[in-house]
Amino acid sequence: MFKLRRYLAGHVAECVVAPLFKMLEALLQLLVPLVMAQVIDVGIANRDAGYVLAHGALLAGVGVFAWAISVTAQYFCSRLAAAFGTALRNDLFAHVLSLSREDVERLGRASLVTRLTNDTQQVQDGLNMFFRLILRSPFVTLGTVVAAFLVDGVEGAVLLVAVLVSFGLVMGFMRVTTGRYRQIQQGLDEVQLRVAENLEGVRVLRAFRQEDAERDAFAATAAAVRDRQVRTGDISALVNPLTYAAVNCGLIALLWFGGVRVNVGNLTQGQLVALVSYVSQALVELLKLTNLIVLLAKASACARRVNEVFDTRPTLADGPLEAEPAADAPALAFDDVCFAYPGAGGDALSHVSFSLAPGATLGVIGGTGSGKSTLASLAMRFYDVGSGAVTVGGQDVRELSRASLRGQVSLVEQGATLFSGTIASNLRWGRSDAGDDDLAAAVATAQASGVVEGKAGGLDAEVEQFGRNFSGGQRQRLTIARTLVRRPRVLVLDDASSALDFATDAALRRAIARDCAGTAVVTISQRVTAVRHADQILVLDGGRQVGLGTHEELLRSCPVYQEICASQLTEEEVVR
Ligand SMILES: Nc1ncnc2c1ncn2[C@@H]1O[C@H](COP(=O)(O)OP(=O)(O)OP(=O)(O)O)[C@@H](O)[C@H]1O
To answer: What is the pLDDT, as a whole number, of residue 298?
Structure first.
């Protein structure tokens, strides 16, 4: 947790005032038994009603004052913790966005959600209680011991032993439970993963009637978390009774020795009452300290998980250069590129080379798992190549800043995603300063005019979360339009028109060729019709490049392409 102290900078006043006020409250609390002893030994012993009433009024005044500073301190603590939590969450979110796909997959998407929400909340709650109690509880506990020593040395020693035993118990408990809280949070990651998977695939789940199986699997995951919580709870449940037992044993000893010492005249009755009051205060504070330690154990386990994310440096370092495409350089080129996914046995792409001139088109075709989407990911630099190089406008993508690269190359993937807002707000993700005319032009090119006109409000029509008030084909057209608004130099369409019918798909290709003359277009598809008119077609098979040429050239020279064509087209269509 200490590593997160940077989020307290700028809140020094609250950091100082809050614990100090709580300490002041504690100091006032420590004075009460001393006043009480005076009331008993002087006021009651002398039957002096005025003395008793005056001291009673003093105690009431102290109580009100202590209440006022306690409320003030808690206000500062809550404000501090809320500011800390907000800054922490914002930073963590920004950091997660800066990570590469590989980093995100390694940490786990579900785990990142838990860390961003539940873990940061636990750290915030821990911090809140920390500032409330960190000075107060030890101060009151130590203060009661010191005060007891001042009243009577023997009785002070008895209380000290009871406090030390309780404190030892609490610290031992913290050591044991921190690791367990970590395991509980990991269990929550698994719950989160199951929820996300099931909600995302709810239709498939229903279609395959897997509700019962998934309910059982969810119950098993939740039960595993419950078991971990119960095991940790069993230990936590022991701490309070053990603390009670230790302090109450101390109380018995204190009364035993105290009674003897009152009898022999070494202690007054008022002093014994004050000592008993100190033991009660010590007990209450030790219990609070125990709860604080429980919260801190949780918070520290969660802070470690949050720090793990911060310590994950993006594996893809941002390049230093801005894009300055050379006029005679290819818009996109792969030079003998090989790539393997982390932890995968073999290459997903091996020895792939092609060069795409500005304004030219490349079709990429191949069977399932042949490496087509991997090629798109490398063009976007979601991953770094294992060997060889990917260049954009003649510059190695590793040399370019991420923002600059994204300004040059845009990708539309099959799983078209829209975000809640309006059609216009979604389209302006492409370019925030785009005017309505730019949006309309992109919509027309993407064959999405009918989609926009069909919705009440046109460009201002509402888009629900994930764009679920649009069909799959409508979403695909709008995501293509969003990318066109950006006017990229290289446009990569990865199965981006799979939900479109053949006629619309063909119209889309013609419109892009007409309206985006300078844009190099890479069309990735399993459909021959989507790539056959490209200037070049790259054929992949098991990650290897087995053909590169025009439709006619490949029909003569590439058996894999011939096979794909034969499986999808009639003989007449192949040569048409
Ligand atoms: N994130 C990943 N981690 C590990 N292996 C992966 C990952 N993504 C893809 N692969 C593997 O890399 C290979 C190429 O996958 P890729 O997604 O590029 O194929 P594809 O040609 O686009 O397939 P499809 O047409 O089915 O979408 C496959 O063997 C796949 O299992």
So the answer is: 85
SS3 content of the chain, % helix, strand, coil (to 5): 65, 10, 20
Could you identify the atom of ligand 1 that is nearest to the CA of residue 540? 21
Whether residues 346 and 455 share a domain: the answer is: yes
Q: Are 328 and 406 in contact (CB under 8 A)?
A: no
Above pLDDT 70, what percent of the chain? 98
State the pLDDT at residue 573. Answer: 67
Summarize pLDDT for 399-409 with one digit per residue, the tens: 999 888 988 99
Judge whether 330 and 490 are in contact, CB under 8 Å: no
Residue 352 near ligand 1, beta carbon < 6 Å = no
Which residue of 372, 492, 526, 544 sits with most ligand 1 atoms within 8 Å of its CB, as the best mutation to test the pocket?
A: 372
Q: Does residue 316 belong to any structural domain of this protein?
A: no
Give yes or no for residue 374 CB within 6 A of ligand 1: yes
What number is the average pLDDT over the span 452-481? Answer: 88
Q: Residue whose CA is closest, atom 29 of ligand 1?
A: 369
Using one digit for the tens of pLDDT, what is the confidence trace for 495-532?
887 777 788 888 888 898 888 888 999 999 988 988 98
Establish whether residue 447 lines the binding site of ligand 1, counting it when its CB lies within 6 angstroms of any ligand atom. Answer: no
Instruction: Kindly give the number of the ligand 1 atom that is closest to the alpha carbon of 368.
Output: 26
CATH at 570: 3.40.50.300
247, 276, 311: which is the final residue of a domain? 311
The strand pairing partners of 337, in sequence order, are 352
pLDDT band for 242, please (50, 70, 90 cuts). Answer: confident
Structural domain contains residue 323: no
Indicate if ligand 1 lies below 6 Å from the C-beta of 350: no
pTM of the full structure: 0.69
- Are residues 371 and 341 in contact, defined by beta-carbon separation less than 8 angstroms? no
Specify whether 239 is located in the same domain as 274: yes
- 324 within domain boundaries: no
Residue 327 lies in a domain: no
Q: Are residues 376 and 498 located together in one domain of the fold?
A: yes
Could you tell me if 354 and 445 lie in one domain?
Answer: yes
Q: What is the ipTM of this complex?
A: 0.96
The tally of domains found in the chain comes to: 2
Strand locations in 299-427 (E)? 332-339, 349-356, 361-366, 387-392, 395-396, 409-412, 421-422
Mean pLDDT computed over every residue of the chain: 87
505 and 571 share a domain?
Answer: yes
For residue 485, what are the CA distances in angstroms to 74, 148, 436, 497, 498?
51, 77, 11, 17, 21
409, β-bridge pairs: 490
Are both 242 and 110 inside the same structural domain? yes
Kindly state whether residues 244 and 384 are assigned to the same domain.
Answer: no
pLDDT at 576: 66
Enclosing domain of residue 85 = 2-311
